[in-house]
Amino acid sequence: MTVVIPITDPADPRVAPYIQVRERDLVGRRGEFIAEGEVVLRVLLGGGARCRARSLLVAQNRLARLEPLIEDLDAPVYAASQAVMDGVVGFHIHRGLLAHGACPADPGVEALLASLPRRALVVALFGVSNHDNIGGVFRNAAAFGADAVLLDGACCDPLYRKAIRVSVGAALKIPFARLELREDALALLERAGFEAVALAPGAAEPLAAVARGERIAVLLGAEGPGLPAAMLARARAVGIAMAPGWDSLNVAAASAVVLHHFAAR
Predict the structure, then answer these.
(1) Does domain 109-263 have CATH number 3.40.630.10?
(2) 112 falls in which pLDDT band (50, 70, 90)?
(3) If you ran DSSP here, which 8-state letter would residue 112 be given?
(4) Which H helix or E strand runs over 162?
(5) What class does CATH assign to 4-102?
(6) If pLDDT is split at 50, 70 and 90, which confidence band does 28 have?
(7) Other residues' Cβ atoms within 10 Å of the Cβ of residue 223
(8) What is the enclosing helix (H) or strand (E) of 251?
(9) 3-state SS string over 34-47?
(10) Average pLDDT, the chain
């Protein structure tokens, strides 16, 4: 049975990873993360997540609801009053549920692509620096059965607390890797047998006409600048059909449309 450890002092060193959460988020946690809320914790603890919990910090009034989930947890569970928990994290944490965890080391893009099944669907993101969009893309990737997500150096961290929350825990399940500064994403994808399909407003070829191949990589850029012209020239540029006078979607919404298109095929 899991032992619940009471915490009465916000400065208790046993809960050091949770102290001043927002400030720690800003500097990053290097493969570690803080997950927040019951939905995300159920993904993390319920099996299938590639990341693991190192500890939980729970408001005392939430313990009873979590008992079935934590009864065999191989990690300490710290319980505190709401006031103490707020003092630890540095703001009112109304959800009352936090987990500190760690994910496997980034395997690198080439190794991740090589590990995927023969029939695979991946998402590659370039310059997406908004945590809501990153979380939304990971949620869509999980919903439509994508096998992995690739990110360039300009993308924000999928393990940022808000990105994990928006992804409803999908960022803790979907494998991802970050491109090195001088790595050529399209060359890596081509060597691994992936067809690169780049979403571009106004592209002549409609997404609806694209058949699902064995290995497909969906390329998405940041809202506004989109994908670089040089990348579009080397990939298969496609567009999503829209009403007259409108030419683009939020990047997370676009990812849902294109991933549904390929999942349905």
Answers:
(1) no
(2) very high
(3) H
(4) helix 161-166
(5) alpha beta
(6) low
(7) 17
(8) helix 251-263
(9) EEECHHHHHHHHCC
(10) 92
